[in-house]
Amino acid sequence: MGDRRRRRRNSREVLRFLQENKKILIGIAAAAVVLIAVLVGTLAGSRARKSSGDGSAETETAEQSGTESQESTADGTSVALEENAYPQIISLIEAYYQAATDGDVEALQSLTQAMSEDMLIYLQKRSAYIEEYRDLTCYTKAGPVEDSFVVYASYDVKFQGMDTLVPGISPFLVFSKGDGGYYIYEGEVEEAVNAYLEEVSAQDDVVDLMNLVQVKFNEAVTADEDLSDFLAKMTDDLKVEVGEALADAQTTQKETESEADAQQTIRADEVRAIDVVNVRASDSEQAERIGKLQIGDVLSVIESRANGWTKVDYNGKEGFVKSEFLEPVGGQQEEAGGAEEDAGAVSTLPSSGTVTVAETVNVRESPDEKADRLGVCYQGAKLEILAQQSDGWTKVKFEGKTGYVKTEVLKILN
Hints:
Blueprint: H1 2-19, H2 21-27, H3 35-38, H4 62-65, E1 82-83, H5 87-102, H6 105-111, E2 112-113, H7 117-126, E3 130-142, E4 149-159, E5 166-176, E6 182-185, H8 191-201, H9 204-223, H10 225-262, E7 265-267, E8 270-273, E9 277-280, E10 289-293, E11 298-304, E12 309-314, E13 317-322, E14 326-329, E15 332-334, E16 345-346, E17 353-356, E18 361-364, E19 373-377, E20 382-388, E21 393-398, E22 401-406, E23 412-413
Parallel strand pairs: 2-6
Antiparallel strand pairs: 1-3, 3-4, 4-5, 5-6, 7-15, 8-11, 8-14, 9-10, 11-12, 12-13, 16-23, 17-20, 18-19, 20-21, 21-22
Helix pairs in contact: 1-8, 5-6, 7-10, 9-10
């Protein structure tokens, strides 16, 4: 009984270690834990989150959030590890590691769901140190919902300039797409899924597999001092490289978001104020204030400018108002769009499924133009439509998060 409790406690520590892998990958600096740098996948995302008690909270699909009852896999934890038992799973994991070797961000995004930006950057930077993965083996257990899998991928890594192969193992949570294909889920999971994964990780065959790879790794590093030095230096270098890349990405995102805001234009003869806002003598926040609009005030549009300002007729005078505080009356407001609709775009949206965006749009946290922005979906990027709402907003899945886009500005490509 004591040995089983100890194994269960150890498995919980392993699971927490793997769930925090994304963060640790960015911050590690000690050669003693360099095995973390060898691990590429993460099990069930960076952390588990509890379901909200708020009845108004949005619910994700059962496959993504793991909220579906586990009755369908109640016996899954008693099934022994299966080795290379599912060709489609093997192909998925092989494609993942090839993309990780190539540093192919687009391929990684196509194979996974909810992978964080820091992990994408880490894998891209780390690819410069990797020559290839060899002897890939996929061990599987039944996942938390029907047609899902917990996958343990073991392999040997050939690093650039190193002769000694480095053993490693990476856990993955794999779900069905519903069309016969599968994807790797890298996002947050519900507490019920976390408990299930903890139970799987406590099983003797999983613990033994992890221990076996750890022993092989220790032997490889101990036998090759050059390899040990290489891994330690790679870890330190990656910490700097990823940190710099993340800082650059954040700066670029802010600049792009500012540009997207500046390009917000309004196509309408009349506009309505959606907030209390000043009317200026010119298109500058430093210009003289010639009046103030109240919520609901309606004005005629003289000109809509690409710099984020709208020229209006204010009490018989020309005035300027920030476009973000106005909404069209009987017209169309578009974000980052031109005067003409793209020839290849269509206005009719499907009720669900993945679409290619024809024009750059802002994605908001809630169906409100004043809500915080989740990010910018650029022209040619993909959005998953979850639902079209009667309030003029479309609910979408964007970079693993639920967001909202104004239906009237969401154009898709044929």
